[in-house]
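Tip: read the tokens left to right.
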């Protein structure tokens, strides 16, 4: 067994503390500020109460409470600059969002699911705060996703040379998610201007803290990532302010992240769908009410002469009237139209075709070189474009697509990320919404499953769930496909699994196509998955123009014209189909080949037109035979072109087995090949 030898070096000393209470007179705070805090806390509690009334009346089907979190939120949020700094909130952050500029009416429009709801236009349940005007990023229900997205936002803020700070909030239950680790790790490595705030109310719905953590305090985790952690009584807004001010100042100065743990009470149930009496004793619930942060702060202000009992009553009445007005205005607002369910899936505009400049110089390139050419030219043209992923920097990617980019454009724009696919995708999302044009690389499509939630639940839905308030211009690149002896986890075709409204999925078939499609994908306002077949990387070279040219997404091309049979395919299968088509020429069978290019959403018009033209159709792909892009193409033809067909629609794909086997005989048996395709085409021609 190898011996581990200790060497002299800096010792590791975890930097965690419990912040003892701080008196407001020992700070720069004044009475005016404390009164303003009290008003915010009253607003939060009154809004919470109205939400419950609306829920009981059946006007708000779902609500989630912030009661008990108000003191922590106003103290933590106060050092931030509204409309300047950024916020990645979690679902209880009512007071914090108001501090950043949201109004009671905004919150009412959301809980009532009105068309003018700034967070989502009625598309999300309440608690998913969002407003690009206020730098409040859109939240989703899978917890901790805001943390990796936030790391991307914070990286962009640092990259731009600003002193802006991102505050990222989460409940302690979310700390069990892998995204929490990936966010902490990325933020620590790059010393990002981010403050993590855990609002620890002791329960992940019903699971108590002792079943979530093996340590005494959440903030002690920060030590493992090399940045400070501090635990504070979240019922005390002044002390929360003190630790937040310190953390925000540290972030602005470029010293990196801090983790703040606010110990708070969840005074009510998790949500309107929960009954906390099932897991909390009556005695415990009564003790919560006695420790109410709002009542504690009220007593403190009266005892210290900041407010009189009369002023408190006047403030309570004024807030009640303000929330009543917001409630009435919200109830009178227009509901979304049914057809609004169709809006903001994709941007209304996308890059159009740009032909190569006449007489432009060309170069014989394989697909790897063509992709690298596209990235290089676009990074030179647009400083917002950047690359991130595992080994994309000094190594240049496992297939050398990004070779030389780091030396040319620097480490800030070519990020060697940790081995964490969810982080790669989540950080790319944060970069995109913060104004960058990230191109993220997954080493193989097979590993993109680790980022499935980030891609399909976050990236794909971001425009839709914010009702078009946010745009997500990013590309996720990954090598795919068989006949490269990659076996189970280096050969999968995952396009059908990731086909989700909001995403575009592109698979090029040649070097020329790869460059033109990648340039269009980078400039597209929507997220694009760009899958590159490994067998095509160095299979052949062709003349590729230097300089820009764009091939529009969602537009198929006729690779080969024919009159008897249409073959619909993409990627490597375009070339296998071409070989098979030549084999049928001697039999007098004319085969048309349609290269789909964008496999989701499909170019339906091109598919239907070709099917009508020839009357016989073969859908060819190497993904599993069932539940595939090919299945969708076949269904489309059957639905909309059946009257023009002279034979049933034929599908030919890979095997319905878990994935590509490694041994050559089994891989060959799995894959569609030119000889197998020839046989299928001959059978279809004879029908």
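Filled-in amino acids:
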């Amino acid at each position: 067994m190898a011996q581990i030898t200790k060497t002299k070096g800096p010792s590791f000393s975890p930097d965690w503390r419990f912040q003892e209470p701080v008196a407001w007179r020992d700070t720069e705070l004044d009475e005016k500020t404390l009164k303003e805090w009290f008003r915010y806390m009253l607003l939060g509690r009154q809004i919470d109460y109205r939400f419950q009334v609306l829920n009981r009346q059946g006007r708000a089907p779902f609500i989630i409470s912030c009661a008990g979190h108000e003191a922590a939120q106003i103290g933590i949020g106060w050092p931030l600059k509204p409309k300047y700094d950024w916020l990645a909130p979690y679902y209880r952050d009512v007071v914090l969002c108001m501090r950043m500029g949201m109004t009671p009416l905004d919150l009412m429009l959301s809980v009532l699911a009105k068309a003018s709801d700034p967070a989502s236009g009625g598309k999300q349940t309440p608690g998913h705060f969002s407003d690009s005007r206020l730098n409040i990023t859109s939240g989703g229900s899978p917890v901790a996703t805001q943390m990796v997205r936030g790391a991307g936002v914070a990286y962009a803020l640092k990259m731009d040379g600003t002193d802006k700070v991102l505050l990222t909030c989460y409940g302690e239950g979310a700390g069990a998610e892998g995204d929490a680790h990936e966010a902490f790790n990325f933020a620590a490595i790059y010393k990002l201007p981010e403050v993590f705030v855990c609002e620890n109310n002791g329960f992940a719905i019903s699971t108590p803290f002792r079943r979530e953590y093996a340590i005494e305090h959440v903030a002690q985790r920060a030590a493992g990532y090399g940045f400070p952690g501090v635990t504070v009584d979240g019922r005390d807004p002044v002390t929360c302010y003190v630790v937040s001010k310190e953390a925000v100042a540290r972030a602005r100065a470029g010293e990196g992240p801090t983790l703040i743990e606010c110990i708070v009470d969840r005074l009510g149930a998790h949500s309107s769908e929960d009954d906390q009496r099932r897991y909390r004793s009556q005695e415990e619930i009564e003790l919560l009410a006695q420790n109410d942060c709002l009542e504690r702060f009220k007593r403190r202000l009266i005892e210290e002469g900041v407010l009189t009992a009369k002023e408190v009553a006047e403030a309570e009445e004024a807030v009640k009237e303000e929330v009543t007005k917001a409630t009435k205005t919200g109830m009178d607002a227009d509901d979304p139209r049914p057809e609004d369910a169709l809006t903001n899936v994709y941007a209304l505009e996308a890059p159009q075709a740009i032909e190569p400049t006449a007489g432009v110089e060309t170069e014989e390139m394989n697909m790897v070189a063509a992709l690298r050419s596209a990235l290089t030219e676009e990074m030179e043209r647009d400083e917002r474009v950047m690359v991130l992923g595992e080994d994309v920097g000094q190594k240049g990617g496992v297939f050398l697509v990004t070779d030389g980019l780091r030396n040319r454009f620097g480490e800030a724009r070519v990020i060697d990320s940790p081995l964490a696919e969810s982080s790669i995708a989540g950080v790319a999302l944060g970069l995109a919404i913060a104004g960058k044009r990230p191109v993220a690389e997954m080493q193989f499509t097979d590993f993109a499953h680790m980022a499935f939630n980030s891609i399909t639940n976050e990236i794909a839905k971001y425009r839709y769930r914010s009702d078009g308030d946010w745009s997500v211009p990013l590309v996720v690149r990954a090598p795919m496909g068989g006949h490269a002896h990659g076996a189970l986890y280096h050969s999968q075709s995952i396009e059908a699994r990731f086909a989700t409204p909001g995403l575009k999925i592109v698979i090029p078939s040649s070097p020329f196509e790869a460059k033109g499609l990648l340039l269009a994908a980078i400039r597209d306002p929507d997220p694009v998955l760009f899958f590159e077949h490994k067998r095509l990387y160095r299979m052949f070279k062709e003349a590729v123009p230097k300089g820009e040219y764009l091939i529009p997404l969602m537009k198929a091309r006729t690779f080969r014209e024919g009159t008897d049979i249409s073959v619909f395919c993409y990627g490597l299968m375009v070339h296998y189909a071409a070989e098979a088509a030549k084999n049928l020429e001697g039999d007098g069978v004319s085969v048309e080949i349609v290269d789909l290019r964008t496999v989701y959403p499909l170019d339906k018009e091109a598919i239907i037109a070709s099917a009508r033209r020839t009357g016989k159709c073969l859908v060819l792909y190497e993904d599993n035979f069932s539940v595939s892009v090919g299945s969708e193409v076949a269904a489309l033809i059957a639905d909309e072109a059946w009257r023009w067909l002279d034979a049933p629609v034929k599908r030919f794909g890979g095997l319905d087995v878990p994935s590509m086997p490694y041994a050559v005989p089994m891989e060959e048996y799995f894959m569609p090949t030119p000889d197998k395709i020839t046989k299928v085409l001959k059978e279809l021609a004879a029908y």
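Residues 383 and 573 are 36 Å apart (CA to CA). Residues 31-56 form the longest helix (26 residues).
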